[in-house]
């Protein structure tokens, strides 16, 4: 963040950076010899937040030199530029880094949403306006030079504020011999060097437009410098870039004529101004546009709204009196930058209070703009979802079990933690679950009809997707025949925070005879005789596989910051999925032994593998063969010390006999049979041999292991 005498907006800009959901960051503020309160503001914040570092200068050298000082001091993997008078959405860094990594890009840029400290509306409301790409687009050097061939019209991509990998920047620096346009030249040079940069039509950057902005004070000599640096890069241009460069140079020369004429008028040099206007008709058109805009603002000033409240709410909400209602879409992806700008435009004026209903409204709060002109507004930072009230997304796969689904959803309604949202994924081609969902009349419960039919194993697996369209903080999967006890969410959130973990494996009770008149809950949890409460290293926990134990889908609770990809992505049975999911966890996991969920033991009535045509015996052999292969891999991944004490490892509660049986049956270590006796050892070894001989691993196992071990 380069800064020169930006005290009036600096605090708001700093707060918006420090409020990022990706909190592992450093904020380098390169002050360019400010004479206002800027230094005092930064030093005060740095005393309470060690992420803030002040880089002082005794000489005013311009924004390029200030940014270069920050680049030299930066230690992060990604570099972001945020101007000291702008604001950014709380999730900006997280979103752009995720997109860049998914596209294997060196950088990622978003559109800019304009806002004005006077509260006037912007036209267009964003940098890209109507020519924003429909999806993520690769930025080329030719696009950076401008033109309409790429569908971006006259949008100046030099204004973008991309996140760029520090390794890609390397020793590259901004040119310090230009005062305006240094960003454009820097980005263009990186692209010519081979950088791969992505542009998304979304926007998480709020660009303040005001009279003091340096980009509003273009001088003829600045334009000469912009032409000069472009010509310095010309030898590296290809034919397309050369053609675009000629058009850009002509446009810059026209701008120079206009700015020179404006200077003549300001300096009351009427004859030179008139002569220039006669020689260059475009200058007259430019002056006419400025005159018209000023006339409109003088004769029809913007009247302050009487509306003191802005209400962000789902579609169909009724507007309250004297309240501006902004109806939000069902999904975040349905809106792009120009849509979100409605929120920014509506919240630019002093005294506006914003009400947000629902998780998407909380996300929309990141687009709220507040003026820093008065102390009252200066204290208002961008509102964030309350940290003590995180959003939990429940994902419920279902197939033609209306009574079970109703009970499952009732257990959500009874949760002590009320900030949750449930997506029900119905695999019935007839969509029978919709009637159940509609019957609750709860806006937190959403019906999703699978088309085409996924069948149960895929339907369950997709519920573990890393996609987060609801912008949730935590996740869990509750299959339609299972249910939660009232404190499930509240206590799991508390464990995540208290223990500093991102994944929890929660103990569950068993409902015997589920779906019958004699259904009964077990007295003990399924983990009571198997595991101990506490933190498990991933390699140690995988050793549970040797005793035929895997994580239960309904026992998992994870945060948006979990590194493990819990979705299997490959075709396999739902039962094998749980073993593969155990293998997928690659970070510490906390085992919580208090049972707060119920697993339904429904025997042959289960529809978990509906859609699989293989016979029962072949399925079982295939499953057992797959598990054996996983057991051996889990054993080889564990360190020597954990393998040596496996039979008596304190992390596990299941008996030494049970551990030994797993080692013998999987042919990992037949010597473990000493604790079992020779008859039992022989029986298990033969059984394991038959499984290896007759069973074929499920077809999804090999590609899964290839992806996870790579």
Automatic annotation (TrEMBL):
It comes from Qingshengfaniella alkalisoli. The keyword Transferase applies. It comes from the Bacteria. InterPro entries: Glyco_trans_2-like (IPR001173), Glycosyltransf_2 (IPR050834), Nucleotide-diphossugar_trans (IPR029044). The lineage of its organism: Bacteria, Pseudomonadati, Pseudomonadota, Alphaproteobacteria, Rhodobacterales. Residues 2-117, 396-503 form the Glycosyltransferase 2-like domain. It holds the Pfam family Glycos_transf_2. This is Glycosyltransferase. GO terms for molecular function: transferase activity. Keywords: Plasmid, Transferase.
